[in-house]
Write a structure and sequence with these properties.
It is built from four helices and 15 strands. A hairpin with a 2-residue loop joins strand 1 and strand 2. It has two domains: 82 residues; 121 residues, 3 Solenoid (Pectate Lyase C-like), CATH 2.160.20. Helix 1 runs parallel beside helix 2. The chain is an alpha/beta fold and 228 residues long. The radius of gyration is 26 Å and the shape is elongated. Belongs to the MinC family. Keywords: Cell cycle, Cell division, Septation. Interacts with MinD and FtsZ.
Length: 228
């Protein structure tokens, strides 16, 4: 005796404390999703005219929803349950989004000295082979690595990224800044012979200056194997 095959649902509705979540099958035609959505919404009780509009979270998986398709889905919600699409969760990204991710994760490599009055700003991480003189400024949306002396201003995590770090071969800056946390470490006596140092923001939102070896413990995603 063969078991009756269960038809796969193209739309699964889940109630949450914030509204409703609609999980859409990403393996069928979009028209099939619309058809099943209309059927399921028509079975639900009609809301009162002055009722609060429900917030909808769409989960589309590997299906990328075009603007026209989102409009068609929203029309179904308007016609049946007076609801608004609030968020869309998808595993797919557009070319523009992929390019934005690439830029945010790129490493800009410079071999030069940053002199007084000069300002260098990059998107992503900055790897500087050279010194930052007093009065010079370097900024990055990601991490900053200085293979030289840092005696000027370094601002990492410009877009409020508190996970960013600042590393230098010789750390004696006029100012360190990570996201919106600002610190000027005390001057250290002596010149040369010191280990590379790193600065990071701890769980108390305090700037910490420590040995370079510490960065792998506090920020495990960072590797010290930068290919020049």
């Amino acid at each position: 005796m063969t078991q009756k095959q269960v038809k796969q649902q193209n739309v699964i509705i889940k109630g949450t404390k914030d509204g409703l979540t609609f999980v859409l099958n990403d393996q069928c035609a979009f028209e099939d999703v619309l058809e099943e959505l209309a059927e399921k919404l028509s079975d639900r009780p009609q809301p009162q005219e002055n009722s609060v509009r429900v917030r909808i979270n769409l989960v589309s998986g590997k299906r990328y929803l075009e603007k026209e398709q989102v409009t068609l889905l929203q029309k179904q919600f308007n016609d049946h349950i007076h609801a608004d699409i609030d968020t869309i969760e998808t595993d797919v990204i557009t070319k523009d989004e992929a390019e934005e991710m690439r830029l945010d994760n790129q490493i800009t490599r410079l071999a030069r000295v940053i002199r007084s009055g000069q300002v260098i700003e990059v998107r992503g991480d900055l790897l500087l082979i050279g010194d930052v003189n007093p009065g010079g400024t370097i900024k990055a949306t990601g991490n900053i690595y200085v293979l030289g002396a840092l005696r000027g201003i370094a601002h990492a995590g410009v877009n409020n990224n508190k996970d960013a770090v600042i590393c230098a071969g010789s750390m004696n800056p006029s100012q360190l800044r990570i996201a919106d946390v600002i610190s000027r470490p005390p001057e250290q006596e002596g010149k040369g012979g010191r280990e590379m140092e790193c600065a990071y923001v701890d769980e108390d939102d305090q700037m910490v200056l420590d040995r370079m070896q510490k960065v792998g413990q506090v920020r495990p995603y960072i590797t010290d194997d930068l290919t020049l």
